[in-house]
Amino acid sequence: MNISGNNLPVMSGAGSSGEVYSASLAKKQQQADGRAALALIEAAGSSAAAQSPAKSTTASLGNNINVYV
User: Fold this and answer.
1) What pLDDT is recorded for position 35?
2) For FRET with 67, which of 4, 5, 14, 58 sits at 20 to 30 Å CA-CA?
3) Residue ranges of region Disordered (predicted)?
């Protein structure tokens, strides 16, 4: 089986317009990725602020240890 570019249809002027279209798609994808990253950062920041602070340990914690079996 021989695969060559001779049998492919020729698109006139497709070189530059294809590059512009590809660049446009890449730009839109980068913008979407940026928006998703910002949303993730904002969600992580708001959930960290909404959590209750950790309870402080007391001075007597761990002073009584039951060693009898």
Assistant:
1) 96
2) 58
3) 46-69
